[in-house]
Structures are given as C-alpha cells and as structure tokens.
Design a protein that fits this description.
alpha+beta, Herpes Virus-1, 39% helix
C-alpha cells in the first residue's frame, strides 16, 4: 500500500515508468483526460519534479474509447508533415502529391474520398472557386459574423491573436491555449496573456495588462485612467529604491576612493615639503 501524490489516499498503486512516483488510477485518469481535451498529443508526467512524458500504451489503457480516438488523432496529426492534412469535415488524412506544372489554384482542390467534401489543401478551408486563399480569408464575413455572436453568455468562437484561426470553447475558463501555435490568450477579449512582475497579469483588475471585461467594462476611459495611474505609481515605487541604491553605491565608492587616495596625497605632499626645506639649507 502506497500513498497517492495527489489525493494522498493509501492504495495499491504501481509506480509511473518515467520517475517511479506513485499516482492512483483515478487521479491519473482525470489528468490524462484533461490533457486530451486540450489536444495535447504528448502528455507530460503529472509529477511536478519529473520532466518525462507518459508512454503511449499507458495513456491508451487509461482513456475511454472516445478519448482514445481523439488522442490517436492528435498524435497522428502531430507527426505529419506539411504534405498531409486532415479533411475539415470528417478528419480523414489526405496527402497532396507533387504539384503539377500548372500554376493555377486548382492544384490545391481536394475532394475527400470519405465524405465527398471539397476543400482547399493550402488554407484548409472549404473550396473557394475563383478566389485566392488570401482573398477568401479576408472576405469570409459569414465566419466572422457567426464567431462574434454571443450565445449562452459567450462568443461562438474567438480568433487566436497569433495565427488568426477561430477557436470555439466548449468548457473551462477564459484562459485559452491555441493548439496550432501554443499562444495563450483570453477567450473573452481575444488579447494575449501578458505578465510583468509588480505590474500584474491579465487576471488583475488594476493592471494595464488586465482584461477589459474584468474591471469597469462600461467605462473604458475611467478604466484606462485608473490603470494608467496605478502603473505610474508602481513605476515610481520601483525606480525610487533603484535610485536610492545607486546613490548609496556612488557615495560608498567615493568614500573608498577618498580613504585610499588621501593617505597617498598626504605622503606625497609631505615628501615634497621635506625636499623644499632641504634645498633651502644648501
């Protein structure tokens, strides 16, 4: 009988292969399931001091059938190169052969053999006949309109501030991590998570990095004024000790230089005086 590192209950537990620490099946299952829902293909060991990864067989043995299918899909997706992409509708993987000499956009037109869905391999979107990928992304007003609609207290989808793909939240908090570029952003306002010591982060009400919906959302000018004032005060509080320390260091350095140079100056002056008096005797 060994004690679990999470729930602290004594159970018959087999140690983890990577670090030989013990974790019960219930706690390990909850952790692995949460990582799969975050689309993590490589799952780190839940033990904080361990930097290893859980083995594929161990992960599969813990998950349910539905989560196993998701895990295998994310794992296969992470191992693919740029020549293979999943179908946007049924997720069937398709490999684009060597492009032909024809330079038209039709070389990226793909029809899924499973669901017959026609899509663009280049931008991973439904096929846009007569439009280039850049023009399609720029003029996709239907997607942007649908994403901005608020239902059940939240937006239908939020755009990643880095790679610009739309992400829909099904559960959890506002802190989102893009599965494509690993950017951390807020689902509520769409801004990146930033943190600076002594100045707060995105969850702080009075921080300049804070979410605009957390503090005075209906009074943006007052919110900016208060947060800016707090930032100025924090800056002064940080600069004042630095200036004081600089003054102390300069004063101490001047004192040390004075203690070293004054005896030398005194000895030199005394010898010069003695030489002058000796020359007068002759």
């Amino acid at each position: 009988m060994r004690s679990c590192r999470v729930c602290l209950e004594s159970k018959s537990i087999a140690p983890l292969p990577c670090c030989r620490k013990v974790l019960c099946n219930e706690c390990l299952g909850l952790y692995v399931s949460s990582q799969v829902r975050l689309a993590k293909p490589h799952i780190r060991c839940p033990i904080y001091e361990c930097r290893g990864y859980l083995e594929k067989g161990l992960v599969i043995s813990i998950l349910s059938e539905e989560d196993v299918a998701k895990y295998l899909y994310f794992l296969e997706l992470s191992q693919l190169d740029s020549s293979t992409k999943p179908c946007p509708q049924c997720c069937l993987f398709t490999t684009l052969k060597e492009p032909n000499s024809n330079r038209s956009e039709h070389k990226y037109k793909i029809q899924c053999s499973n669901c017959q869905f026609v899509w663009c391999f280049k931008c991973h979107a439904p096929w846009h006949n007569g439009l280039k990928c850049r023009q399609y992304r720029k003029g996709d007003k239907l997607l942007r309109t649908w994403a901005s609609v608020i239902e059940h207290g939240q937006r239908n989808a939020q755009k990643c501030p880095q790679c610009k793909i739309h992400i829909q939240r099904t559960e959890g908090c506002d802190h989102m991590t893009c599965t494509q570029c690993n950017t951390n952003f807020c689902y509520r306002c769409g801004q990146r998570y930033r943190h600076l010591r002594f100045f707060g982060d995105h969850t702080s009400n009075l921080s300049v990095f804070g979410c605009k919906y957390r503090y005075l959302p209906d009074k943006p000018h007052l919110r900016r004024f208060i947060r800016g004032s707090v930032c100025v005060v924090a800056t002064k509080l940080l600069i004042a000790p630095v200036v004081l320390l600089l003054v102390v260091v300069v004063g101490a350095l001047a004192l040390v230089i004075g203690l070293v140079l004054f005896p030398i100056y005194y000895v030199c002056k005394r010898r010069k005086k003695q030489r002058t008096q000796g020359s007068r005797r002759w």
